[in-house]
Amino acid sequence: MKKKVLSVMLSVAMVASLLAGCGNGASGEAATSETTTEAASNEDAAAETAEGGTFKIGGIGPLTGGAAVYGIAEKNGIQIAVDEINANGGINGMQVELNFQDDELDAEKSVNAYNSLKDWGMQVLAGCVTSACSIAVSDKTAADNMFQITPSGSAVDCVATDNAFRICFSDPNQGIASAQYIGENGLASKVAVIYDSSDVYSSGIYEKFATEAANQPFEIVAAEAFTADNKTDFSVQIQKAQDAGADLVFLPIYYTEASLILTQAKSMGFETKFFGCDGLDGILDVENFDTAVAEGVMLLTPFAADAEDEMTKKFVETYKEKFGETPNQFAADGYDTVYTIKAAAEKAGVTADMSVSDICEAIKGVMTEISVDGLTGEGITWTADGEPSKAPKAVVIKDGAYAAM
C-alpha cells in the first residue's frame, strides 16, 4: 500500500470529473444480469488465429439495477475501443478480447465477477465502474498483482495500491475544482450545498469543496445533508437553502436524487442556479423526469458530446450507430481506458504469453512515461500514484442536451 498524493492543476477555466453513481436509465432495462462476453464470432476467430495471440481485458460494472446507465455506457465505450483496435492490428499484434460482467452495483458481486474473470483468463482489469466496487476488487487485484485501471472510480482508495490507476479525477479533485470554477467565473456569492453524508463520493467532494471555498469569493450559507435512508423528500434542505438566500446550490450527488431536488425546488418556487459533478450525468435519462426542470444545470464532466474535435465527432457517430443514443462521459471514460491500456502495453512490450504479474509490472512501470490523447483530455499523463493529469471541463444543460461551457 502507499499513500496517495493528490494534487491538481486547476487554474484553467474549465472543470473536471469523476465518479460513479446511482441512477436509472432506460438502457438499463434492456440489459441482462448475465455475463456478457463482447466479441462477434468473426472477432473470436480472428483472435484465435492472430499471430500475436489474444489479449484478454475484463470489465466489471452495473449493467442492471440503479446505476445501469453508468455501467452500460462504460461497457459500450470500451467495446468501441476494442473493435477499433482489433480492426487496426490489435495491441502488439494481439487481438483484444473483452469480457464484461454485471455487478449490479454490489461490492460482493464485483468480487465474484472478478473471480469469474480470472477463471476466464483475464490479463488486465478495466474496472470497476463505481468506487465502492472498485475498492472491493482492488484488494484482489493487489494480491494477484494484476493491473487494474478504473474508468470512473473516483474515491481516493480506488488507487491506493501500486497496481491501480484511474482515468477520471478523484473526489477531492472535483470538490476543489467545483469551488474554483464557481469562484473564478463569478457564478454566485451565496452557495448552499446539499449532499449525502452517508456516501463516500458525495461527502468526499463536499469536504474539499468546503475547504477550498474559504479561498474563493463566495460564502457557503447552508450545508444540508441527507442519508441513504432518507433520500426522497428534500423539502427541508431546499427550504434552508432558500431561506439563506443561496443564489447557487451545489449538488455533489447522483442524478436520481438530483432529479428529485430539482423537481421539488421548482414546486417550492425556489429559482436558483444548480451546479453538480459527474454524478449528475444521466439526469436527462431519468424515467418520468421533466428535463425542462434541469435547464441551465451545470456539471463537471470530462466529455461533451457536442464538442467539435474530430475524435469526439467520430466517437459520437459510432456510438449512435451501434447503440442508438448519445454517449455520456462514462462511455468516454471507458473508451479512453482501453486506449490507455494499449499505449502502456505497447510501450512495455507486453506479449500474450506473459503472466498476469509480469504484465502488471511491465505496464505500471511505464504508466508515468506514456501520454494519451483521449476523449476526456489531450496529453493525459499519470503519476506513480495512479492519478491522471489533464485539463478539466464543464457542461451546461441547454435545450435538453449537454453543451460545452
3D structure, described in words:
A hairpin with a 5-residue loop joins strand 13 (377-382) and strand 14. The strands form 3 sheets. The chain has a 7-stranded mixed β-sheet, with helices on both faces. A 6-stranded mixed β-sheet has the order 1-3-2-4-5-6, with helices on both faces. Strands 12-13-14 form a 3-stranded antiparallel β-sheet, with helices on one face. Helices cover 38% and strands 19% of the residues. The longest helix is centred in the first third of the chain and has 20 residues, at 68-87. Helix 3 (68-87) packs across helix 11, helix 4 (107-120) packs parallel to helix 5 (131-144) and helix 11 (329-348) crosses helix 12. It folds into 2 domains: 26-169 and 309-389, 3-Layer(aba) Sandwich (Rossmann fold), CATH 3.40.50.2300; 172-301 and 395-404, Rossmann fold (3-Layer(aba) Sandwich), CATH 3.40.50.2300. The protein is elongated, with a radius of gyration of 20 Å. By secondary structure, it is of the alpha/beta class.
